[in-house]
From TrEMBL:
Descriptive protein name: histidine kinase
Lineage: Bacteria, Bacillati, Actinomycetota, Actinomycetes, Kitasatosporales
Keywords associated with the record: Kinase, Transferase, Two-component regulatory system
UniProt KW Transmembrane keyword: no
Top-level taxon: Bacteria
UniProt cross-references to PANTHER family, sorted A to Z: NITRATE/NITRITE SENSOR PROTEIN NARX-RELATED, NITRATE_NITRITE SENSOR PROTEIN NARQ
Source organism of this protein record: Streptomyces polyasparticus
Catalytic activities: ATP + protein L-histidine = ADP + protein N-phospho-L-histidine
Entry's EC annotation: 2.7.13.3
The keyword ATP-binding is assigned to this record: no
Domain named Histidine kinase/HSP90-like ATPase: residues: 2-91
Segments crossing the lipid bilayer: none
Length: 97
């Protein structure tokens, strides 16, 4: 659970810095009865992203697969002028982390 939450925050914050420089970013974590929900949202960028960004476009795919293994939910996409990543992870996850 902790590793999964860390990985989502790490990837989403890195993405906000890479793809939406200058944006405001909000990270929310909500402990629920059966799960923990994490949401990372950013506003529109205020600067153009750098042209020579490293990365193969696999970060979100990897998170989506990881959340599926844990029996959680995962969404990522444009949110108005900004972008939002949301995941819900059940407390009783499988052994796959
Ligand atoms: N916060 C964001 N704001 C705007 N676009 C985003 C944001 N996060 C992701 N994207 C878009 O979604 C695409 C896929 O994101 P993903 O994290 O999978 O790949 P990446 O960041 O380009 O590369 P990698 O994560 O493999 O280093 C990005 O290339 C970008 O176009
Ligand atoms: Mg990424």
């Amino acid at each position: 659970m902790q590793r999964a939450l860390y990985r989502i925050a790490q990837e989403a914050l890195t993405n906000a810095a890479k793809h939406a420089p200058g944006a405001l970013v909000r990270v929310g974590v909500e402990c629920r009865r059966d799960s923990v929900a994490i949401t990372v949202s950013n506003t529109a960028p205020t600067r153009s992203p750098a042209f020579d960004l490293p990365g193969g476009g696999n970060g979100l795919i990897g998170l989506r697969e990881r959340m599926a293994l844990l029996g959680g939910t995962f969404t990522a996409g444009a949110d108005g002028d900004g972008y939002t990543v949301s995941a819900t992870i059940p407390h009783h996850t499988s052994t796959a982390e």
